[in-house]
Design brief:
With about 350 residues, this protein is an alpha/beta fold. Helices cover about 40% and strands about 20% of the residues. The radius of gyration is 19 Å and the shape is globular. The structure holds pyridoxal-5'-phosphate. Pyridoxal-5'-phosphate binds next to helix 5 and helix 11.
């Protein structure tokens, strides 16, 4: 089966109905500059050599593909493997993208990076890469998230980053993004916005996907070595969508490989109770905050906190039958029969 995503889009940064660039005038120039820098970097051998070197010798790639023998035995069904991105330096896949964009900031002559973070992992990865490359780093984080993730806040500060607490709105990720955008608009000349997932305006989603696609390239080779065949299913959690598209991308042409993205089901299916845009049937497509994507809004059109996340991953669900998105509420016990499929 051929899917739309395997057909190159004629307009860069468009994924079917998703994507694009809806930004204030002041951001058009830095986005063009970033797009150009990224296009050049793709064929720049010194950039690619440095990127690969840092992935290997700084971050610790390749990560293992571990056979989960006990889980496999307990479930008594398919053979389950885990792609161990948690074994990377700083503890998550976020470092892959942070290295790529950190190197681009250096190439563009920008001495400062701005980042937003929710769980803290992207902030820690950005602070770590900034320290390594000699860049200044400012990380915006909602104060609710700062309290929840105090350890990661301490790590960022130890690495020399300035962590700015955001008190507005729900004091979480979306408010941190607003503040990071304000900072970027004000300081575009010397600052690069190191976005942490497949979201935002072109070229971010494409670029972040490319920086994360190493996950799937390794996984494909590793599973072929281990099992002499492709997997039947790939599973990934979906927050902003970077680890999922990083894993899925290399398998998009393999129509027999099913892909399942798992979103946060929260307290229940009601609007405002969860963070699932794709699986919860309340999502709609709209252009909001710099790109067209899937969002949730309440009856007064107030955007829900989980908005504007991955439309690269979203387009998988919308444009083909290959990917499914599911969300399971926190209270869901074993009695729940299975995921809700979008
Ligand atoms: C360890 C880890 N996994 C997954 C995610 C979700 O992000 P994404 O969907 O972009 O991979 C995060 C976000 O901070 C994370 O820290």
């Amino acid at each position: 089966m051929t899917t739309q995503l395997t057909i190159p889009t004629s307009v860069p940064g468009r994924f079917g109905p998703y994507g694009g660039r809806y930004v204030p005038e002041t951001l058009m120039v830095p986005l063009y500059e970033l797009e150009r820098a990224y296009e050049l970097a793709k064929s720049d051998q010194s950039f690619q050599a440095e990127f690969q070197d840092l992935l290997k010798n700084f971050a610790g790639r390749p990560t293992p593909l571990q056979f989960a023998s006990r889980l496999t035995a307990k479930l008594g069904g398919p053979r389950i493997y885990l792609k161990r991105e948690d074994l990377l330096h700083t503890g998550a896949h976020k470092i892959n993208n942070a290295i790529g964009q950190g190197l681009l900031a250096v190439k563009m002559g920008k001495p400062r990076i701005i980042a937003e973070t929710g769980a803290g992992q992207h902030g820690v990865a950005s602070a770590t890469v900034a320290a390594h490359l000699g860049l200044q780093c400012t990380v915006y984080m909602g104060t609710e998230d700062m309290a929840r993730q105090a350890l990661n806040v301490a790590r960022m500060r130890m690495l020399g980053a300035e962590v700015v607490g955001v008190e507005s709105g729900s004091k979480t990720l979306k408010d941190a993004i607003n503040e990071a955008m304000r900072d970027w608009v004000t300081n575009v000349r010397n600052s690069h916005y190191l976005l942490g997932s497949v979201l935002g305006a072109h070229p971010y989603p494409t670029m972040v996907r490319d920086f994360q696609a190493v996950i799937g390239r390794e996984a494909r080779e590793q599973i072929l070595n281990a099992e002499k065949r492709l997997p039947t299913h790939l599973y990934a959690c979906v927050g902003g969508g970077s680890n999922s598209i990083g894993l899925f991308h290399e398998f998009l042409k393999d129509s027999d490989v099913k892909m399942v993205g798992i979103e946060a089901g929260g307290r229940g299916n009601a609007l405002g109770e969860h963070a699932a845009r794709l699986a919860a049937h309340q999502g709609f497509t709209g252009a909001r905050r710099i790109a067209s994507n899937t969002a949730c809004a309440d009856s007064s059109a107030g955007m829900m906190p989980s908005i504007w996340l991955s439309f690269v991953a979203a387009s998988r669900a919308s444009l083909s039958q290959q990917a499914q998105y599911s969300a399971r509420p926190r209270s869901c016990s074993q009695a729940c029969s299975g995921p809700t499929e979008a």
